[in-house]
Amino acid sequence: MNERAKRESPFTPGIYAAADSSPTTVEAFGCRLVVTIKLQLFGTADDSVARIIKEDIEQKWNDTHYTVGGGGPAFSWCPVTFKVLTVVGGDPLPYYHYITLIRERNFRSFVASIIPPNAGYSLGGTWSDPRSDTSKNLYAHEAGHLMGLADQYRDDSTENPVTAHIFSGHENDLMARLGKGPNPSMPTSPEIDSIIRASGVICPQYCCQTYILPGLPYQSYSIPLPFGNMVYEVFPINNNLTITANGNGLWWQNSKTGGPLFFPPFGTSVANVYKDEQHPVNNLFPLDLALGTGQVYQINPTLQGYYPVYRGNVFAGSSAGSQSILKITGDDLYALGSTYTYVSRDGGATWQIDSAGLGNNFVFDIALDSLQRVYAATINGLFVQLPDSNIWKRDTSYTGPSNLLRIFVDRENRLFLAVNGGGLNMEREHR
């Protein structure tokens, strides 16, 4: 910090506001936490300078691919993304960090507390213009100060570059050095954790459940489930692990014990779970899970265990009304609602009603075979949608009773059809 900075009011390391009306915010979008830094640039700044500063900060802080709590004793699965918004010049905007750029060689950049004319206490500063031969990672380092982090070195010099007295254990810390040394300087896990903790935003509980692979042989075993909840899905994952689904969530069991795997957000319940046998990971299968209120998650296996990824809301962009999700299946995600059938062909980001070719037929059940053909059970017979089409067609190869309620497809692509009032009908390998 140079003499000019010493004359400014010092900032308090490790503390910053995280409400929406703040220059730096933290928000949770499903299981992803987004840190947003808003910069208004003055002095020698122009659009090209703003782009350089934005890229320097975002690249360095996002290079960590950091997940809150990942690797700790209690696993959390909320990836953290850093985003920078920049404005060049103009009247001071409320809730921005005000940064003055100076085009001067060997200028010692700094961050200090300021009191802008149109808002309360804020952090701002004076930084070296990137066209002044600035050190690599300078702006990522200064952004750390804007997020409340302190320097991890001791140096009374007022000249660049800082090279001496790095605190022990911080040799590769971005807040201790910019770029020199055998290893790249990076933000540390405790620093990112402190940013998230200071904001008051937490990784939602439903993102933090994990199953640690026990490596125990499978035996028959029952685990207590919440009173009043009916078990409606049981998934043998491998010979070590079985997952059970009920309205309160997912539960795992092995030969010795069991416990919760996933809790839905408060006020919602699990409607359906689909085991994706086409894409095993480490001999485990991902699970697609739908809540009755339309949210869809993918529960993914890793070497550490299962973790959930939010994949969107089926009803987003359409009127949910009194609908609920009954079932979900497929690579292109098909969701059976109590009113319509929906499809997402972009991993859950967007959903559309999928009714072309069905006419007025209500779909009671959907199922998928190994060739990614999707079948729909209706009161007027069996319909199919092929992988290269988005049109439902009546399956003319099926000649059994038409009043269908349920479909099951086995590993040999044989269809088992439950007929309303007519028992079970089996179709041999479907073509």
Summarize the structure in words.
The protein is mainly beta and 431 residues long. It has a domain of 197 residues: Collagenase (Catalytic Domain). The chain contains 4 helices and 26 strands. The strands form 6 sheets. Strands 1, 2, 3, 4, 5, 6 and 7 form a 7-stranded mixed β-sheet that branches. β10 and β11 form a beta hairpin. α2 packs across α3. The chain is elongated, with a radius of gyration of 28 Å. The N and C termini lie far apart (74 Å). The N terminus is likely disordered.
Q: What keyword list fits this structure?
A:
34% strand; disordered N terminus; elongated; 4 helices; 7-stranded mixed β-sheet; 431 residues; 4-stranded antiparallel β-sheet
* Counted beta strands: 26
Would you list the SSEs in sequence order as H and E?
HEEHEEEEEHHEEEEEEEEEEEEEEEEEEE
Would you identify the regions where 5 or more consecutive residues have pLDDT less than 50?
A: 1-21, 70-76, 209-229
The name of the CATH architecture of one domain is 3-Layer(aba) Sandwich
Cα-atom radius of gyration: 28 Å
Q: Count of helices?
A: 4
Could you tell me how far the N terminus lies from the C terminus, measured between alpha carbons in angstroms?
74 Å
